[in-house]
Design goal:
- Keywords: Membrane, Transmembrane, Transmembrane helix.
- The chain has a domain at about 60-95.
- It is built from 1 helix and no strands.
- It has one helix spanning about 5-95.
- The relative contact order is 0.04.
- The protein starts with a helix and ends with a helix.
- The protein is rod-shaped and about 140 Å long.
- It is about 95% helix and about 0% strand.
- By secondary structure, it is an all-alpha fold.
Length: about 100
């Protein structure tokens, strides 16, 4: 036969066991959240690297376009100068 004291001890043991299980669940949840944040941090770091790479490619492309525009202007000016010189030579030949 169970004494009231035994019932109290069993209730306390059961309550302690439930609290331990609850603490284990909470600890597991905290560990899961921690893992999620670690993975999120890794993804953000990887995407930052990709963004930096894209940014450097855009800058490189911009510099190439600028250089191409300068070269095109030089070619146009040289072509005009050569045409003017050829025109002067042709005019000089026909008027002599």
């Amino acid at each position: 036969m169970l004494l009231p004291q035994d019932l109290v001890e069993m209730g306390a043991a059961r309550k302690q066991e439930q609290m331990t299980l609850q603490s284990e669940r909470e600890l597991n949840d905290i560990m899961d959240v921690n893992q999620i944040f670690k993975e999120l941090g890794a993804m953000i770091h990887d995407q930052g690297t990709i963004v930096d790479s894209i940014e450097s490619n855009v800058e490189y492309t911009s510099q190439n376009i600028e250089s191409g525009n300068k070269m095109r202007k030089k070619k146009v000016y040289l072509t005009l100068i050569v045409l003017i010189i050829i025109s002067i030579i042709i005019i000089a030949i026909f008027y002599h």
